[in-house]
Amino acid sequence: MSSEVSEQAIKTQVLYQSIVDDISEDVPMEEWSSLIIEVPEENPKRILYEQGLYSPGSGEICNKYVSMSASSVLRHPYFNYPAVLDPGIKKALLDPEEKVTYPDDGQELYMTLCKEMNQCPVSIFFKGLLKDSIDLRYYGVDPFGVRAMASALQYNKYVKTLNLTDNFLNDDACFHLGEMLISNSTLSELNLTGCRIGHTGVKKLCAGLHLNRGLQVLSLDKNQIGDIGLEHLSAAIFRGINVKEISLSYNNITGKSANILAEALETYNKFTHIDLSWNNLFAPVAGTINLLSRLAENKLLQELNVSWNSLSSGRIGSALKAVSKCPNLRVLNLSNNKLTGDAIQNLIGNLEKAKKLVSLNLSYNPLTPDDALRILHKIKLNSVKIQNLLMENVFIDGACLMLLKQIKEMKTKKNVNITYGGIIGGFQPSEPDMREIVLNRVDFLMMKGKKKKIDIAIVAMQLLKDKVDILPSKGFADALVEAGAVLDADLVDEIVNAFSVSKNPKAKMISISLLVDYIHRKWPDRKLPPTPPPEPETPAVEPSPGKKRKDKNKK
Questions:
Q1: Ranges of Basic residues compositional bias (predicted)?
Q2: Rounded-to-integer distance, Cα 256 and Cα 8, Å
Q3: What ranges make up the beta strands (E) of 281-356?
């Protein structure tokens, strides 16, 4: 224990002694801490600034290094260092969006709307926006996609024809088409045949039609618009539309709505082509007669089609008579009705006053032969200008045929085309021409040979050239045998009878000149071969005297 204490005392004493010894010594002057000056490292930015490669900026200090409690900051740091300017939040919240403008052709607008509406764009329509016409017949267009099409066509300056035949459209599609027609002045033809838009679709389509001044042709066939739809169309006509050609077939239109259309025509009556076929205009008759009377006042009407309407009675005939006097009417189609008797007599009463009527169609009407005869008597007049009279399925008799023959022989009626269904009565057709039958048979027998073919026309012409004209039956048969033709005696007798000049039936004589004359008319291309010129005679050459001596020596 004592030994451990003594060791600690020695160590402590030694340590204390060494420390004292070290402090007591003087430190050299160059090691004095007061004289040590640390040279700071050079700032790289300052070096670059001295070289002109660095700009420190405005000299402002970032807020990060400014103490908020320092008295040296005289102003609030947010005022001394303003916040970032508004990146557009205020404008986006308070100001309306800028309107995007698209080219007039509508292609870019169409693709944008299809994307917004999640509709598949129609490539034919997209390409057609730069063409004259867009044909989407039987394409199965989505009715909701018509909105994008109508918007693309709103200011288009290229498309003039839009065909949507047999694409079932709803009221929404008709609404957008109507809106398009208000601003589009380039489209001239709109075909909605078979789209089944109904009367509600017609109402939306025609709402602003009176504001359009470019549409010329409107086809609404097979749309089941009925009388209500025609009333909506009549309202648009009353306000004044620029359409010239309108088609309304297969729409279940009756005389009731026809009367309303007639009232609209009192204000606007400038149609040039009207198609009212395949409807029910037969009842009530008063409305149809009123409509025809209004159409008779139209000075621009060129074509009227009222076929397949079961029209009949004399009153209808009188109304059609008034229509036929329109100064520019060229085509009047009355086929597949029930016109007969008084109706026909009234209809043709003023045909001579129809100066421009070219085509009159009365096919499939129950016309009697007397009705047909009355019509033909009118056509025969030089004052009647009709060139095409169609009476398909109308039966005529012999008197009509004789009148038809007279009409065809007239110089002023050479281009008249008249058709009819059949012939009834006691008419007997003319007998066939035996000359043609006999010559056809002879030509067949004489030309069928494979080795030697003989032309009866050449044989007869050669006989006439040899001044052989009148021959008996046997002499003619001998001439044929000499030419190499072998015919039956009965056939030769028929040839002689066909071209005989003898009044006595027993004395059979044939005229070769008559035979040749008929052959020239039947076969104008058959002619005798040209006779070759006579060959010149060569003079006899006398032998020379020297040649004679040689001949004598040989002998």
A1: 546-555
A2: 140
A3: 303-305, 331-333
φ, ψ of residue 412 in degrees (nearest 5): -80, -5
Distance of CA 59 to the CA centre of its chain: 79
- Domain boundaries for CATH 1.10.238 within the chain: 434-522
Find how far residue 403's CA is from the centre of its chain. 41
pTM confidence score:
0.65
Compute the distance between CA of residue 260 and CA of residue 254 in angstroms, rounded to an integer.
Answer: 11
> At 7, is the secondary structure helix, strand, or coil?
helix
Q: How far apart are CA 189 and CA 192, in angstroms?
A: 10
* Dist CA 498 CA 441 (whole Å): 13
Element (H, E) at 483: helix 473-483
DSSP characters over 503-533 = SSSSS-EEEHHHHHHHHHHH-TT--PPPPPP
| Orientation of helix 255-265 relative to helix 285-295, angle to 10° | 30
pLDDT tens-place string over residues 138-159: 999 999 999 999 999 999 999 9
Tokens, residue 221: 């066939």
Contact by Cβ (8 Å): 254, 284: yes
Residues of the chain with CATH 3.80.10.10: 107-355
> H helices within 297-455, ranges in order?
314-324, 342-347, 369-380, 398-409, 434-447
Instruction: Identify the CATH class of 107-355.
Output: alpha beta
Structure-block tokens of residue 392: 């398909």
Q: pLDDT tens across 225-281, in order? A: 999 999 999 999 999 999 999 999 999 999 999 999 999 999 999 999 999 999 999
How far apart (Å, rounded) are the C-alpha atoms in residues 521 and 95? 96
CATH 1.10.238 fits 434-522, yes or no: yes
